[in-house]
Amino acid sequence: MERNNVLIAPEEIERQRGFTDKIRQMFAGRNAHPVACVDTFGCQQNVADGQRLQGMLSEMGFTFTDRPEAADLVLLNTCAVREHAEQRVFGNLGILTHTKRDNPEQVICLCGCMAQEERVANRVKDSYRHVDLVFGPHALWKFPELLWQVYESHKRVFSVADEHGSIAEGLPVVREKGVKAWVSIMYGCNNFCTYCIVPYVRGRERSRLPEAVLAEVRELVEAGYKDITLLGQNVNSYGNDLGIGYDFADLLAEIDKIPGDYWIRFMSSHPKDATKKLFDTMAASRHVARQLHLPFQSGNDRVLQAMNRRYTRAQYLDLINYAKSVMPGLVLTSDVIIGFPGETETEAMETISLVDEVGFDALFTFIYSPRPGTKAAELPDPVPRSEKQKWFDHLLEVQNANSARLHAAYVGKTQRVLVDGTGDDENFPLTARTEGNRLVRLRGDESLIGTFCNVKITDSNTWALYGEVEI
Ligand code: SAM
Ligand code: SF4
Ligand code: F3S
């Protein structure tokens, strides 16, 4: 892909601002105060996209509500990674027939990864006729123009053409209040793991320029954000498409020089592209949290090959051992799939044995879900769901015991934590995160929210640590 075809020209972004102005003036002319309900599903990348969409809506004059029935515009920002995620969205679309019946002027938009799937766009076209606007991640930056077309023409608008994808800089954003922020450093995925829909809906890998990422992180640190996560489907291949001999470790090292009191995290990392240089850079840094999310998916070499993951169990364990050796106390998390087509019980148990061998602090566990259009969806899948569920339950048991054991080892120790809000435990009302991103429930005053403090860990369970602030 030609690099100069990737960046959306600044004049194009400016042209979009023109449509934003038209929409704002349209509402001002009616003396209306429009309200939007933005509902985001899926991964942090989608959350970051949702914040950009909210930024555009805010510039159009919208304020926000969580209640679709109270909204002039509803935007479902969807995920296609598993069937369940799609079913939830179709369920929500069904409910919106009622809100639209009560308020025929309501505009309903469907965007995100599901919207990029031809199968979904066609189903919405035919069977969900109350949806006014459908656009995929490739068209996100054109949202003002597409929405203006809906308001002007009163016709349904679909913008779901398949593309390699682009990068749009300078889009407005509404960030979460507090201390956490997300920064997309790249978009798309080239890996085509055989079970995964993401490369089909998010296009090819494209990296933002280092100076654009650095400027955004600097701005966030200056604005007081203290827990910043760099996002990409595989951040370890950051820079490959830039052709300037600059990789993810180089980016981390430069970000680390930004002055301030903050943590940098990143996700996700693909083991096939994780390097010793990356772990050495993390170990030498001041701000990069000693936490690694390194999805392994399966502990069996045959299944890994069938998944097109391009590493072996032994290579994965080597990486983990190296990372642990240069960063003692490193907190590890991962993603795992149970029940890939053709996986046997013995192979699934190898995944569980790897979980035990590594000792992850937490796991994101999934039962395989066939995604139409992917290679794995064509494979024979003879094992019944009930059998996969048994393996999955066993995996959870093993992991929960590991999490509880690793958490118990914190008791009696002092941890530096970032207090980020309040929770639902009356006795420990504050919530905080350790450098390793473990949840800590705390006693203390709300004035601590947004600050780093030292905490004595007094108790723990599978899900959280409990502690008292040290004065
Ligand atoms: N790019 C990241 C990576 O490679 O680790 C994350 C991709 S995906 C958004 C998040 C996780 O969903 C994957 O790591 C995988 O475990 C899981 N996943 C993806 N496709 C799946 C499928 N068809 N069925 C079940 N789980 C799936
Ligand atoms: Fe999906 Fe694999 Fe790409 Fe991750 S690396 S998004 S699992 S294809
Ligand atoms: Fe993320 Fe789901 Fe898309 S996990 S990239 S929102 S398919």
Written description of the protein model:
The chain has helices spanning 10-29, 44-59, 83-102, 118-127, 143-153, 198-202, 210-222, 248-256, 276-284, 301-306, 313-326, 345-358, 385-408; strands at 35-40, 63-64, 73-78, 107-112, 133-135, 157-159, 180-184, 186-187, 206-207, 227-231, 263-267, 291-293, 331-338, 362-367, 414-422, 430-434, 439-443, 452-460, 465-469. It has 471 residues and is of the alpha/beta class. Strands 2-1-3-4-5-6 form a 6-stranded parallel sheet, with helices on both faces. Strands 15-16-17-19-18 form a 5-stranded mixed beta barrel. A 3-stranded parallel sheet has the order 7-10-11, sandwiched between helices. Strand 4, helix 4 and strand 5 (133-135) form a beta-alpha-beta unit. Helix 12 packs parallel to helix 13. The longest helix is centred in the last third of the chain and has 24 residues, at 385-408. The model has no long low-confidence stretch (mean pLDDT 97). The structure holds S-adenosylmethionine, iron/sulfur cluster and FE3-S4 cluster. S-adenosylmethionine binds next to strand 13.
Strand content: 15-25%
CATH architecture of the largest domain: Alpha-Beta Horseshoe
Determine the oligomeric state from the structure: single chain
Contiguous runs where pLDDT drops below 50 for at least 5 residues: none
State the helix count. 13
By CATH's scheme, which homologous superfamily of the largest domain applies? tm_1862 like domain
| Total beta strand runs | 19
The structural class is alpha/beta
Side by side, the strands of the main sheet go 2-1-3-4-5-6
Q: State the CATH class of the largest domain.
A: Alpha Beta
Name the shape in a single word.
globular
What is the alpha-carbon Rg in Å? 23 Å
Number of domains: 3
CATH topology of the largest domain: pyruvate-formate lyase- activating enzyme
Taking the alpha carbons of the first and last residues, their distance comes to: 56 Å
**Mean pLDDT, as a whole number?**
97
Biggest sheet descriptor: 6 strands, parallel
Bound molecules: S-adenosylmethionine, iron/sulfur cluster, FE3-S4 cluster
Helix coverage percent: 25-40%
